[in-house]
Amino acid sequence: MATPAVAAPAAPAPAIRLQHVGKRYGSGPVILDDITLDIAPGEFVCLLGASGCGKSTLLNLIAGLDAVSTGSVEAPEAAFMFQESALMPWLTARRNVELALRLRGLAKAERGARALELLDIVSLADAADKRPHELSGGMRQRVALARALAQDRPVLLMDEPFAALDAITRDVLHEELERVWRATGRTIVFVTHNVREAARLGQRVILLSSRPGRIAGQWRTAGADHAVIEQQITAQLRKEISRNAA
Length: 246
Hints:
With 246 residues, the protein is an alpha/beta fold. It is 38% helix and 22% strand. A six-stranded mixed sheet has the order 5-6-7-3-8-9, sandwiched between helices.
């Protein structure tokens, strides 16, 4: 007797879907052209490219902070983390996180404990009562990450959040971010111009060409030699920069 065929489980719907996305401002040059991309729930994607290629613009389109000129974006509400921590200087670390909880509508009685839990996730509970000027740059970015997590949104968008930090601090925060990502299951889209950072963090690295920004290459890092991935990405990035300069 033949064994009945078992249908394979359907793939989950993308957390983020971009279809033929283009962007230009007025009659200016095209910034992004024909970007088609699906990002799976829980995936960590790094957007990489030279300065001015449209990485941050694409992140703004995903966030709904700007409108596409052509194509479509399907994405849930997202938390956003910028290069600068943008903490309220007169508030402690805990109060900065509590502010996000308040805006989310969490009851006042629950905010303090939840803020401490989030600071503990980023290994900063012992600095809860310090103000931003008492914290290092890396610590301020951890508070900003806790504040982003406080918004409790399924997608976290990060625009070069570690670019201003020294290499050692950046490596420490890479480890922290990877740990937080695995613990929370967030979908993360991380913008960077640093090849090593992209290969270190992303499950998938997407390289944008210089203007107009198009997808010039994709690499999956699972099980791959990161040094080889970095070499391949660097070679392609150099081609894109040379093409744009010609």
